[in-house]
Amino acid sequence: MGVCFSIQLDKSLDQLVPPFLRYLCWNNLENNLESLQRCMQDLSEMRDDLLRLVSKEEDRGLQMFAQVKVWISRVGTVESETNRLLDDSIVELGRFSMYGCCSLISGSTYRYSQKVDMTLEKVNTLIREGRFEVVTERLVSQRAPHKQQPTDHQPTGSRANLLESIWRRLMDENVSTLGIYGMGGVGKTTLLVHLNNKLSEVGHNYGYVIFVVVASKEIEDIQDEIGKRLGLQWGRETKKEKAAEIFQVLKIERFILLLDDIQREGVDLQRIGVPQPSRENGCKIVFTTRSQEVCRRIKWVEATLYVECLPPQEAWDLFQKTVGEYALTSHPDIPGLARVVAEKCFGLPLALTVVGKTMSSKRTVHEWHHAIHLLLSSSSSVFSGLEDILSALKFSYDSLPDEETRSCFLYCALFPEGDDIKRQDLVNYWVGEGLVSHDIKGYEMINDLVRASLLMEDESGYGVKMHGMFREMALWIIACDYERQYFVVKGGIKKMPSVIDWRRVRRMSVTDTQIENISDSPDCSELTTLLLQRNYNLEWISGDFFRRMASLVVLDLSHNSNLSELPEEVSCLVSLRLLNLSGTNIKDLPKSFGELLKLIHLDLESTSNLRSISLISGLLKLQVLRFYGSKASLDLSLLKQFECLKYLKLLTITVRDVHVLKTFLRSRLAGFTQGLYLEGLKVSGESGKSFAATFGALGSLRNVEMVNCDIIESDMVWEDDRRHQYSPSNQTTPRNPWFMNLSTVVILSCTHLKDLTWLIYAANLVSLTVKASSMMEEVICKEKAGNVEVEPFQRLQVLDLDDLSELKSIYWTSLSFPRLRKVNLTKCPNLRKLPLSSTSVEKIYDLRIEVEEAWLQRVEWESTEAEERFRRAIHRASVY
């Protein structure tokens, strides 16, 4: 660092500096400006790396230390100071060059030199202080509420009697544990859900009622579900540590634990951390399982109850209700034929419902005769005792419109039982495999399978699930067609599965395992799909593993967070069309990567260590490229290369250079970009347009994240664009809808941002996160919104506002939030009112509002009714 002078200048006279000080100041200023630019770059990179680390840790349930947050804020402040000094450097150095070495200089120029010197010292100090050994700590939150589960209808007849029997046993002080068993699809889960809801309705004196779907989940997954209900949030705790914490909470509380779908191996309460229920502690466990043998094997079970299929009349009633009166009365002969079809469902509720939905659109006698023929001819003895039920379920599979749809359904058996499958992932796989020709067809296919009840929608609406019996039926169909297709599906194992004949394996799924290394060299000449995601211990894959997979078209290695490299032998995958490396720790793509010439889909999102993606320039068939939130960012050279990829139709990008951003916005790529991750930029409109007009015009844009950006919005330009967007005669109809597909917005540490009024145009916004933006005063500004009569946030599900010290308003009046599920408000001291009336949210039991205790003392509710209604959803948030 250069020499620092401390000379008092008479500011009123703008006193001149002597020649010898000018000479030293000249050399000092040039050196310090160069050092300041270099050191600030180093500091910015330190800060960005730290933010990425914190983001990962927060995903694991940890929270940032206060001193880390203060350090990040100080970096933002000194970054602004540095940018101003560097912007002024050309002018100040120009003043020096106007005079000779021995000339006098002005006091203002000398003071500028001092500011550079002092700012450099601040930067170096922050670099020294920013080497944190630990950046996060464990988050402790309030317990989650006991919520009702959604059900289609109340139980009647024998099912109502069965529920009453379960209730009596649960209330019996001599029964602490109850096992409910019966075949898949008979209605055990429905009974357990009704039991859970009845506990909520009638009230109870238990500290916790905990509902957990066990299925094929690992112990740690079950612990996480229980921990969430108890208000425990974990980071990297071991299973033993989690068990100890669960035990510490439950040993002093009366609880009821409802465990759905325990499988052959049962559950080990001690390893999970659940105390043994007893008459002394008054705790209860009720579980469901398909096997009576499981009930016998679990030593702590005190009572069991068998769930039978429906008696004939109740089965017929359910089938009639599902088929509907219109179909049954379409022809006089149909009711008689319908009874035959119903009988072939053998009283199994799942079969009655699925077959009934399939037949609800059948209006002719011929169609009903054909259905009976299929049900009678598809029986098989592969699974003794189950063939009749599986045949009944297979009828819905056989009734699918074509072989393409049936193949897509069977593909779903690759996923673990009970797994939520993202629609987008499923479509990507199908397109990669060539099962469907394009994305739209894939989404239509999912909807068809949901309508046929062969798939179920998950709670979020973004994913689907496969019922255990349908998965068993799919695997049964695959086993019957052994010569043509062979699946290997494993989870929770410690090493790669042993396979008798690798050459027959067509598709393989090995997920959520403890595998650390893969060194096998299998001959997988027929393998087309390999799913190896979420193996968090996986660090290394040998080159030999990929040598004999010439037919592989889909490879998913996503969310293997310890995987830091790919072998060069990945080039042996000459048929590969889809490669997903998102969420991995890879630093570089293999040099041979450019040889994957058939690749059409490449996902590199959230690769926080990936340095460059320039090797993809030769992948001329690429249609989908994602690197949103990657360390690798778009530059001008890459942009030119991407424009040469003539088949490219979907893009998500990371940009850290304002010149690159401006060039990108003028390119053809902007038209099909779905994700923009912007970091460290001055973000403004282009060519006299407002920010809203510029970015809102990107019709494909779905996800936007801006980190440490200076977002510039001219009020005058905004007003002009707003008027142009809406016609005077109809203020609710935009001429060219802005942000029409925008779903997720994340704003982090954008310190100069005052509002997000442009969100009034984001009609499909699902999630909004704004953090550490110290100048934000309003989310939607009334003056800027003008007289546009558009009610925002109609699809909003998640609202997360944190560390917004100047925030005073979200919206100036109450709004309806039909889909709101989670609100987090922390460190917003000036926000006194929420835009909520007593009728804003219909399903209040689905809503969770996390706020600070102190905030509750100063909040102003729209009415007493609103306060009473929403206080049920409020929970104390943790603040660091």
Automatic annotation (TrEMBL):
- One record GO biological process: defense response
Can you give the residue ranges of the NB-ARC domain?
162-325
Cite the entry's keywords alphabetically: ATP-binding, Coiled coil, Leucine-rich repeat, Nucleotide-binding, Plant defense, Repeat
Which InterPro entries does the entry link to?
Apaf_helical, Leu-rich_rpt, LRR_dom_sf, LRR_R13L4/SHOC2-like, NB-ARC, P-loop_NTPase, Plant_NBS-LRR, WHD_DRP
The answer to whether the entry has keyword ATP-binding is: yes
Q: Which residues form a coiled coil?
A: 26-60
Q: Where is the Disease resistance protein winged helix domain?
A: 414-474
Keyword ATP-binding listed? The answer is yes
Q: Which GO terms describe its molecular function?
A: ADP binding; ATP binding
Looking at the record, the residues that make up the Disease resistance R13L4/SHOC-2-like LRR domain are 505-874
The UniProt family comment states:
Belongs to the disease resistance NB-LRR family.
PANTHER family associated with the record: NB-ARC DOMAIN-CONTAINING PROTEIN, NB-ARC DOMAIN-CONTAINING PROTEIN-RELATED
Protein name, per record: Uncharacterized protein
